[in-house]
Amino acid sequence: MNALLQSAHVEAAEARLWDALVQWQPRQLRALLSPALFLTDHAGHRQDASPLLAGWNARRIRIAAIERQQTEQLACGAMVLVTGELRIHLDGEHGRRLHTLRLLRVWTRSSTAPGVQLLSMCVLPASPPLH
Predict the structure, then answer these.
(1) CA–CA gap between residue 114 and residue 111 (Å, rounded)
(2) What is the pTM of this model?
(3) Sign of CA dihedral 30, 31, 35, 37
(4) With bands split at pLDDT 50, 70 and 90, how would you rate the model's confidence at 79?
(5) What band does 123 get if pLDDT is binned at 50, 70 and 90?
(6) Distance between CA atoms of residues 131 and 95, nearest Å
(7) What DSSP string runs through the chain?
(8) How far apart are CA 35 and CA 125, in angstroms?
(9) Residues 23, 66: Cα–Cα separation, whole Å
């Protein structure tokens, strides 16, 4: 088996990840998440859980849409780092809200289907608009 992780595999996994979140498919989401998944905040502090994902999992919020902007990839052997701006439209008890953030994701090759899993996510503030 080729140890390199291809960009096309990561792009397909990302598309499945976003679809699983918007369509509330927890089984499909779990298949894409590494059992070793860890989350960090903008200061690099490890988080036990994402409030957004916890609310989604408990069905307190619904992700109505995810808009990806300015995605970049850096491949390094069996891992690919993906970074980019996201606009997430949430429906919850306070109506529809828009969250804009920058999300760093580390994808790694996996022996289980779909062959790639999300190993790490870091949530950063969105970049300020250029004037």
Answers:
(1) 8
(2) 0.84
(3) negative
(4) very high
(5) confident
(6) 31
(7) ---SPPHHHHHHHHHHHHHHHHTT-HHHHHHHEEEEEEEE-TTS-EES--HHHHHHHTTSSEEEEEEEEEEEEEEETTEEEEEEEEEEEEEETTEEEEEEEEEEEEEEE-SSTTSEEEEEEEEEEPPPPP-
(8) 26
(9) 11
